[in-house]
Amino acid sequence: MLVARRLVSSFIQRGNNSGQSGLFSRPHGAFPELEPRYLQCTCCWRSRIPVAGFETLNANLTPTAPCTDDISLDTCYTADQREVILRTLNNATESELAAVKLLRGRKSVNIVDYRTKHGPFRSLESVVNVPLLKHKSALVVFNSILNPLKKEKKVKVQLMKFIKPEVDRAWLEEATSIVSIICGTNKVAWAHVDREMLVLDWQQLDCPNFLKGTYIASSYLNDASIDSGQIISNVVSQLPSADFYLVEKPSISLQNTTLFPIMAHMRSVEAMLFALLEPRIYQTDSNTPPRVLNMMRLAVGRHFGLMVGESRTSGAQAVRQMMTESVTQKMPRLNFPQDLLLKYRNAFQMGRGRGGEELCDALLQAVAFYELLSESSR
Questions:
Q1: What are the φ/ψ torsions at residue 43 (nearest 5 degrees)?
Q2: Confidence band (pLDDT; 50, 70, 90) for 5?
Q3: Rounded to whole angstroms, how far apart are CA atoms 303 and 373?
Q4: What b/e string do you get for 190-223 counting C-beta neighbours within 10 Å, with b at 16 or more?
Q5: Spatial distance between the Cα atoms of 217 and 130, rounded to a whole number of angstroms
C-alpha cells in the first residue's frame, strides 16, 4: 500500500510539473477544475492521496446545460434522446401516457387530442402547445420517459385464500369485532379487536401441563393442576363474545417428524376450540356462517414482513411500534386502552426473552385480518 501510494503521488507530481496529462491532471480546456478529495492510507492512517470528487466530476461531465425557460427544449437533449421522447409521445396510447409522471388525467387526453388535430409532434418544443403542459412540466415528462421509475411489484396477500372454512365476504365485512386466538406449547393467548381497530381485550392463559405425557383428551379439557380445574374449557369461558373467532393455523411440515408431537398438540387444541366455540345451529342452518375460522400463520407473517424464507421471525418489534404509535399519532394503526398500555408496556422489550410471543401473534393476526379484508375489498 505504501509503495502504491508513492507511485501514485509521484505520477501526480510529474504530470503537474511537466504540464502533461497524468492520472489526476488534465489537459488545458478539457474539463473544469475538480474539487480535491483524499483517500486515507490504510497503513499509517496519516498520509493522504488526492482524488477527484465524484459529485463534482459527474456534475461537470453533464452533456447538457440547465434548461431554463429561455432555452429551447430540443437543445436540452441529444438526438437519440429526442427520438425516444417523440416516439413515445406520438405512438403511446392514452393509458400508456397516463403511466408517465405528470401525465395522469387530463394531460394524457390533451396529448392524444393534439396529435389527432395537428399530427405527430415534430419537435420537443411543440409539446408546450398542448394545454396544461408548460416548459417545466414538459421537462419532467421528458425525463420520466427517458428514465421510467421501476415500480416494485408488491405481493398482495388475498385474505379469502387464507381463511378456512370458506365464508362469504359480506359476513366478514359486517362483523363488528373478532377474537384472535393463538395456541402455543404452554400458553393460549387472545386479542379482542373491533372494526374501529380498538383493542378491547388482550391476555393469555398459562397451560403448564401442555405437551406432558400422553395425548389424552381429558388432560387437555380437564386438568386438576390449575385452580379452575380445566384448560381449554377455562380458556373458552374467558373468551369475550365476538362475531368471529380466528384460530391460527400453524405452518408445520408433515415431513419434519421431530415436530410431530407439537403438531399433534396444536391439532388437539384447535379441534377442541372449534368444537366448543362453534354453535350447533351452524351445523343445521346453511344460512348461518361459521363462527370459528382458521387463519394461516404464513399469511400474517407475509403481511407484516416477518418471513425469512419459509420461517417466521418474532413480531415483538411490530407490536412495540403499534403501541408507541397509539400514544404519539392521531391516527394510529391500532388503538390501545390506557390500562393495556400500562400492563404490557415493558412486556416486549429487547432482551426479555420470547415469553410474549403468543400475545404478539394474537394481536398481529387480528390486525392482519382487518387490513387484508380492507385491501381485498378495494
A1: -85, -55
A2: low
A3: 12
A4: bbbbbeebebebbebbebeebeeeeeeeebbbeb
A5: 77
Between 367 and 41, the more confident residue is 367
Q: Report the C-alpha gap between 236 and 220 in whole angstroms.
A: 13
Rounded Cα–Cα distance for residues 104 and 95 (Å) = 9
262 phi and psi angles, rounded to 5 deg: -70, -40
CA-CA distance, 326 to 335, in Å (whole number)?
5
pTM greater than 0.70: no
Residues 292, 245: contact at Cβ < 8 Å?
yes
Res. 25: pLDDT tops 70: no
3-state secondary structure the chain: CHHHHHHHHHHHHHHHHHCCCCCCCCCCCCCCCCCEEEEECCCCCCCEEEEECHHHHHHHCCCCCCCCCCCCHHHHCCHHHHHHHHHHHHHCCHHHHHCCCCCCCHHHHHHHHHHHHHCCCCCCHHHHHCCCCCHHHHHHHHHHHHCCCCCCCCCCCCHHHHEECCCCHHHHHCCCEEEEEEECCCEEEEEEEECCCEEEEEEEEECCCCCCCCCCHHHHHECCCCCCCECHHHHHHHCCCCCEEEEEECCCCCCCHHHHHHHHHHHHHHHHHHHHHCCCHHHHCCCCCCCEEEEEHHHHHHHCCCEECCEECCCHHHHHHHHHHHHHCCCCCCECCHHHHHHHCCCCCCCCCCCCHHHHHHHHHHHHHHHHHHHHCC
Cα dihedral 213, 215, 218, 219 in deg (nearest 10): 30
Note the pLDDT of residue 56.
37
Q: Which amino acid is at 61?
A: L
Sign, Cα dihedral of 148, 154, 155, 156: negative
Tell me phi and psi for residue 313, to 5 degrees: -90, 180
